[in-house]
Amino acid sequence: MARVSGEVTSPTPPEVFLRALTDFSPRRPELWPNLSPKLYQVHSVGPTEADVTEGSAAFGGVWERARYDWSEPGVVLIQVEDSNAFAAGSWWRYQAEPVGSGSKVRFQFDRRPKNLKGHLVSLLLGLAGKRVFTRSLEETLRRLGAAPATAAR
Asked: What does the domain layout of the chain look like in residue ranges?
């Protein structure tokens, strides 16, 4: 099992970040550098939830079908329903809050392996996950800062 948390402070306002996190348009893989366009599929999107399959090409391809919930202001919870590496019940949580004109974004995740691939990826996430996902989040926030605020949705 890998449990990782981190935070990034950015000049990007929290509402811009949260819109990008809940943007399930074809633009999504452009904003999130670790997402593979080949593994990205939207099943449904509602006012405060979405059912999405997405993943990374790393480790020979790791995907998950997850339910996004953004009904709590400033928070997006992502619950894994199916995956080729992680057990249902694994999760991600992002929280964005204002800091001056920018934001502080906190992330946490809990990855529970369901097979050998999951155990290997969990081991690597336990060792380097904070650094890898902090850098990925920093890159997304940089991309959001380079784009007009209206383009985030």
From this structure: 2-147
What CATH topology corresponds to 2-147?
A: Alpha-D-Glucose-1,6-Bisphosphate; Chain A, domain 4 (3.30.530)
pTM of the model: 0.89
Decide: 55 and 64 in contact? Cβ < 8 Å: yes
Q: Let me know if 106 is exposed, middle or buried by CB neighbors in 10 A (0-12, 13-18, 19+).
A: middle
CB of 76 closer than 8 Å to CB of 70: yes
The mean pLDDT values, 10 residues at a time, for the chain of 153 residues are 92 95 94 92 98 92 97 98 97 96 95 94 89 92 70 35
